[in-house]
Design brief:
Order of helices and strands: HHHEEEEHEHEHEHHEHEHEHEHE
Number of helices: 12
Helix content: 25-40%
Largest sheet: 8 strands, parallel
Bound molecules: flavin mononucleotide
Strand order of the largest sheet: 4-11-10-9-8-7-6-5
CATH topology: TIM Barrel
């Protein structure tokens, strides 16, 4: 799959400020760096191992998935297609995988569940806890199977002076359909307009236990790029760690996920599941990620470009293409099952 071509087609279709919001990184080269880092690994294929067939089935926090290619939580998908996560979810369900749903979705949780895809709710802890409390309670009631606590940004990021979008969709919605925090009651949503809607910058490890207690769901901590932090969050009770740079949207010169993954995987061993996202653009990247210690990989922008160019079918085509490339890579690497994708298959370029 040519993701760059898909992105060009999405850029042709989307209003410029929407495309700009989707593609933006924290700095001018951040996204490119996060993508290029995956190509900095080469492979040592095994041959003549006598294994036929390829099995990509796995489970993430107990949910079976046909492929380790998962869909990352992304805000404001209705600006790519008016159906938003209704389309992304249906494609994900048909593909046999799992969907992350952003705090900042404009789609009601029940509509997400109706797609049939298993989903995890992504949480930001705002200063006014009534906001995440109501969102979490409703996500649980609607059938979310885990929570993804995003910890790598401490505020809405500041777009570059040339940016053609506002980071605050409350002030300037990306599209007529794009409404922020749709799953809140209007009075609670109103509280999000003021300081209460700012990120809680004093967040510490106790947030993990608090969320677990509130929801009764497993907690995935998203945005870890260091082995010592991975250990701390696991010791604090996290059920899984997602190595992520927020698609290079958080800190302009953060180490790319591709370089951080091995350190995190080694720090937590087999204690919890480790996932990765940011910059993956092919099934070979997914194979590399799993060899470096990820149980599964989330994909962000390629899915958004699929949604913008072809709705549900566009998303499905992206997932199918990534999966097909993964199967071919496993075949050529002599890795018939995901467990056969081991670190010895990968060397730095
Ligand atoms: C347009 C857009 C919106 C996003 N919104 C959120 C969000 O609301 N919450 C979150 O935790 N991550 C968000 N992310 C980050 C993704 O979950 C994921 O980490 C990232 O997209 C993966 O990198 P990739 O786009 O290079 O695949 C967003 C990413 C994009 C591109």
């Amino acid at each position: 799959m040519d993701v760059l071509d898909l992105e060009r087609r999405a850029a042709d279709r989307l209003p410029p400020h929407v495309y700009d919001y989707f593609r933006a990184g924290a700095g001018p080269d951040s996204v490119e760096r996060s993508v290029d880092a995956w190509a900095r690994f080469l492979h040592r294929p095994r041959v003549l191992r006598g294994a036929g067939g390829t099995d990509t089935a796995t489970a993430v926090l107990g949910t079976p998935v046909a492929s380790p290619v998962l869909v990352a939580p992304m805000a404001q998908q209705v600006a790519a297609d008016p159906l938003g996560e209704r389309a992304t979810g249906r494609a994900t369900a048909g593909f046999g995988s799992l969907l992350g749903v952003s705090t900042n979705t404009a789609v009601p949780f029940d509509d997400v569940s109706a797609t049939g895809a298993p989903w995890w709710f992504q949480v930001y802890l705002f200063r006014d806890r009534a906001i995440p409390e109501q969102l979490v309670d409703r996500a649980v009631a609607a059938g979310a199977r885990a929570l993804i606590l995003t910890v790598d940004i401490t505020g809405l990021h500041h777009p570059s002076p040339e940016a053609t979008y506002s980071v605050d969709p409350m002030e300037w919605p990306l599209s007529p359909e794009a409404e922020r925090l749709t799953n809140l009651d209007p009075d609670v949503r109103e509280r999000a307009r003021g300081e209460g809607g700012w990120f809680d910058r004093s967040l510490g490890l106790d947030a993990i236990g608090w969320l677990r207690e509130r929801s009764g769901l497993p907690i995935v901590v998203k945005g870890v790029v260091r082995g010592d932090d991975a250990r701390r969050v696991v010791d604090a009770g996290a059920d899984a760690v997602l190595v992520s740079t927020h698609g290079a949207r958080a800190f302009a010169t953060s180490v790319p996920s591709a370089y951080a993954l091995r350190e995190v995987a080694e720090a937590v061993g087999d204690e919890v599941e480790v996932y990765v996202d940011s910059g993956l653009r092919s099934g070979i990247d997914v194979a590399t990620a799993i060899a470096l210690g990820a149980r599964a990989a989330f994909v962000g922008r390629p899915v958004m470009w699929g949604l913008a160019t072809g709705g549900e079918r566009g998303v499905r085509a992206v997932l199918d293409a990534l999966h097909g490339e993964l199967v071919t890579a496993m075949d050529l690497l002599g890795a018939p099952a995901l467990a056969d994708l081991t670190p010895d298959l990968v060397v730095p370029a």
